[in-house]
């Protein structure tokens, strides 16, 4: 079922005068049965939450307190455990879960994407930045201070997203999503800048970011944000009917008397209020909004009102159950609730997407391929013909524009290397730098440049080239400029493998762990989703689920380590070249020497995959073999890069886009992507070393901060067309 068909069904179902088809009664009965089951489960989980916890107060005593049997409320111990601890905590879990569920359903409806998540509006990133600012700059230490700064940061981020999305195009769903992604990336990078230079801020942040309801003590915290939650729920309720009309399209919605721009602004307001309050109360519990909306849609269909109600109930039930498990699985300690949510949600989401109910979710089997032609750019001149170089019986076809682009990128790379070798805290002039590179001059200068700077530069060149080439292969394979190896869980798998190797061996720097973890992650995702030939949405959903689970496990592993160990590992998980040298870069250079020629060989066949599989087969290309070869190449390259410098963001996304702009759309920019990736890493690392005197900003944080504006420039800058 397409999105337009879903909208038509919603409109017909919302009209009471329309005759109900025979399936409508069955759908309503199913919805009522589902609603009854969720309410029963929610009541049971609420009773369990009130009965489980510290204080050795069982269900009987809890019931006595609630009913005030025999003057039970006069018992100070019972009043403390039930009245001041369990009741506020249970009610907070119900409200926060409902808020995230409703916000997820609303965001999925307004963006017309069943995989939309509440973090798309930058709320989580804004809240995190607010908390870190409060800790690192103002020394905030109280839960009330965290709450205030988290809410303020969340509202600020959402306001920026609304301003970006509404500046051009009337706040379309695509602009809303892209604006949220860009703001979230930039705010996340700024958070990393503050954390990496403040061990105290990182120590508090790494606990808060896991999400927990343990800090809810008494009614004060909940009472401060209950009015905000109430306003968010009311606004969400008022937008259900306009959202049903909006599913028909903006023109039809206007014809029915609705205002699409105002509807989207109201939904954004509701999502902001609900999610910001939830993050302020319990921390950034990711994945729950996506899970609740997905489960509700699978159970109740696409009707917005029913979907919103069920999503709120599902969110409340899941978070309450996760909070109960968090209290009992690791007694006498508490497990992070975000990990419990991921452990519950990931298998559930995978089971649903593999079932036959996915047709009701509004998911299409394939994504439309991006056009590689020039119809959208009539002002661009046709490319000049390629140059043929002949030498006796041998001839080589040299693409003119691609060759010129490669030469220009090589020159830019040389300039970036020179700048990076020269830049630093020591006072070396340019002449001394060149002499030191060649081994002449002062002994200390030679040691500084050749031993430390050049080794680090070579490691950055290797990692950047690997990331750029991996991104090029992935984007061409998926026919989508937003596709990166991260979608297949490569970064999270490689990061988890490196952390496991650190725990097992006690030493850091095992480059081989990154490729192994990346291959394992991709193997799991492809196997669970049904193989390489699986439908695109299956791979995407399974990748999201596995990434959420891996990220939660990584955060727990970091939180359990000592502060000094966790701080150094956090720098690496942010993407860093600190301490990298020739020895670390050697495996990546060997891999590039082998894999780049292979990628150049398959580039021509890869270009054919831009068309339909039938067209590719008629041209003598086996799509399955080419996809497998490209996937293995991309995973190996990305895994090697993560093993060297950690999960550096946006390079795999930006390098192919920039290389394609330079080389033109007629060729797959394999070599150009590798060169651009190397330039980006070297320049970002140089900027991180010299931007703040005496402080080094990891290269991954620099690329993340700059990646948000780049994303907007690439995807929103073409005459208002976000596609």
From TrEMBL:
Record keywords, A-Z: Cell membrane, Membrane, Transmembrane, Transmembrane helix, Transport
Primary location recorded for the protein, binned into one broad class: membrane
Family matches, as Gene3D superfamilies: ABC transporter involved in vitamin B12 uptake, BtuC
CDD domains: TM_ABC_iron-siderophores_like
InterPro entries: ABC_BtuC-like, ABC_transptr_permease_BtuC
Region of interest (Disordered), residue spans: 1-26, 364-385
Source taxon at top rank: Bacteria
Record-linked Pfam families: FecCD
Topology versus the membrane: Multi-pass membrane protein
Compositional bias per record (Basic and acidic residues), positions renumbered to this chain: 376-385
Subcellular location: Cell membrane
TM region(s), chain numbering: 31-54, 119-138, 144-164, 176-196, 265-295, 307-329, 335-353, 403-423, 454-474, 486-504, 510-532, 539-558, 584-607, 628-658, 670-692, 699-716
Signal peptide start-end: none
PANTHER family noted in UniProt: FE(3+) DICITRATE TRANSPORT SYSTEM PERMEASE PROTEIN FECC-RELATED, FERRIC ENTEROBACTIN TRANSPORT SYSTEM PERMEASE PROTEIN
Family indicated by similarity: Belongs to the binding-protein-dependent transport system permease family. FecCD subfamily.
Name this polypeptide is given: Fe(3+)-hydroxamate ABC transporter permease FhuB
Organism: Kitasatospora purpeofusca
Biological classification of the source: Bacteria, Bacillati, Actinomycetota, Actinomycetes, Kitasatosporales
């Amino acid at each position: 079922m397409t999105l337009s068909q879903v909208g038509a069904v919603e409109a017909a179902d919302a009209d009471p005068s329309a005759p109900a088809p025979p399936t409508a009664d069955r759908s309503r009965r199913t919805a009522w049965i589902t609603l009854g089951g969720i309410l029963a489960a929610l009541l049971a989980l609420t009773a369990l939450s009130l009965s489980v916890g510290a204080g050795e107060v069982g269900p009987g005593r809890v019931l006595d307190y609630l009913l005030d049997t025999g003057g039970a409320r006069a018992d100070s111990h019972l009043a403390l455990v039930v009245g001041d601890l369990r009741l506020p905590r249970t009610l907070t879990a119900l409200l926060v879960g409902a808020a995230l569920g409703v916000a997820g359903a609303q965001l999925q409806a307004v963006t017309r994407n069943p995989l939309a998540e509440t973090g798309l509006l930058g709320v989580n990133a804004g809240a995190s930045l607010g908390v870190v600012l409060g800790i690192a700059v103002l020394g905030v230490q109280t839960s009330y201070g965290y709450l205030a700064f988290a809410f303020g940061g969340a509202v600020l981020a959402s306001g920026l997203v609304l301003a970006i999305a509404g500046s051009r195009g009337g706040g379309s769903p695509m602009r809303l999503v892209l604006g949220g992604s860009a703001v979230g990336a930039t705010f996340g990078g700024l958070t990393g800048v503050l954390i990496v230079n403040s061990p105290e801020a990182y120590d508090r942040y790494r606990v808060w970011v896991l999400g927990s309801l343990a800090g809810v003590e008494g009614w004060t915290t909940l009472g401060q944000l209950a009015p905000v939650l109430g306003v968010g729920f009311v606004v969400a309720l008022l937008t259900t009917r306009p959202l049903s009309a909006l599913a028909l399209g903006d023109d039809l919605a206007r014809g029915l008397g609705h205002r699409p721009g105002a509807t989207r602004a109201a939904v954004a307001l509701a999502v902001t209020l609900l999610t910001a309050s939830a993050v302020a109360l319990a921390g950034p519990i990711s994945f729950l909004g996506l899970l609740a909306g997905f489960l509700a849609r699978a159970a109740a269909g696409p009707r917005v009102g029913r979907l919103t109600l069920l999503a709120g109930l599902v969110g409340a039930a899941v978070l309450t159950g996760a909070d109960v498990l968090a209290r009992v699985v690791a007694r006498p300690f508490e497990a992070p609730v975000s990990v419990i949510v991921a452990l519950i949600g990931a298998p559930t989401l995978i089971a649903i997407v593999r079932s036959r109910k996915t047709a009701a979710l509004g998911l299409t089997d394939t994504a439309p391929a991006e056009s590689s032609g020039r119809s959208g750019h009539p002002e661009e001149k046709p490319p000049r013909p390629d140059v043929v170089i002949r030498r006796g019986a041998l001839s080589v076809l040299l693409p003119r524009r691609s060759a010129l682009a490669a030469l220009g990128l090589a020159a830019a790379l040389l300039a970036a290397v020179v700048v990076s070798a020269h830049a630093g805290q020591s006072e070396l002039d340019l002449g001394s730098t060149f002499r030191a590179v060649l081994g002449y001059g002062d002994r200390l200068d030679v040691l500084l440049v050749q031993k430390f700077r050049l080794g680090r530069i070579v490691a950055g060149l290797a990692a950047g080239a690997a990331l750029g080439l991996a991104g090029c292969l992935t984007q061409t394979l998926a026919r989508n400029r937003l596709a990166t190896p991260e979608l297949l869980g490569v970064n999270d798998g490689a990061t988890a493998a490196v952390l496991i190797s650190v725990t097992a061996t006690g030493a850091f720097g095992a480059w081989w762990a990154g490729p192994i973890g990346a291959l394992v992650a991709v193997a799991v995702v492809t196997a669970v989703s049904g193989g390489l030939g699986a439908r695109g949405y299956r791979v995407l959903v399974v990748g999201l689920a596995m990434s959420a689970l891996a990220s939660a496990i990584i955060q727990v592993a970091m939180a359990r380590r000592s502060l000094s160990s966790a701080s150094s590992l956090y720098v690496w998980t942010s993407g860093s070249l600190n301490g990298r040298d020739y020895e670390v870069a050697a495996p990546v250079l060997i891999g590039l020497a082998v894999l780049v020629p292979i990628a150049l060989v398959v580039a021509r066949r890869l270009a054919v995959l831009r068309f339909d599989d039938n067209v590719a087969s008629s041209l003598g290309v086996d799509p399955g073999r080419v996809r497998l070869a490209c996937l293995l190449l991309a995973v190996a390259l990305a895994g090697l890069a993560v093993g060297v410098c950690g999960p550096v963001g946006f390079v795999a996304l930006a390098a192919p886009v920039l290389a394609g702009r330079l080389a033109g759309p007629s060729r797959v920019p394999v070599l150009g992507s590798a060169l651009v990736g190397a330039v980006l890493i070297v320049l970002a690392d140089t900027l991180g070393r010299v931007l703040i005197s005496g402080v080094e900003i990891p290269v991954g944080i620099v690329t993340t901060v700059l990646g948000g504006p780049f994303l907007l420039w690439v995807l929103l800058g073409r005459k208002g067309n976000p596609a």
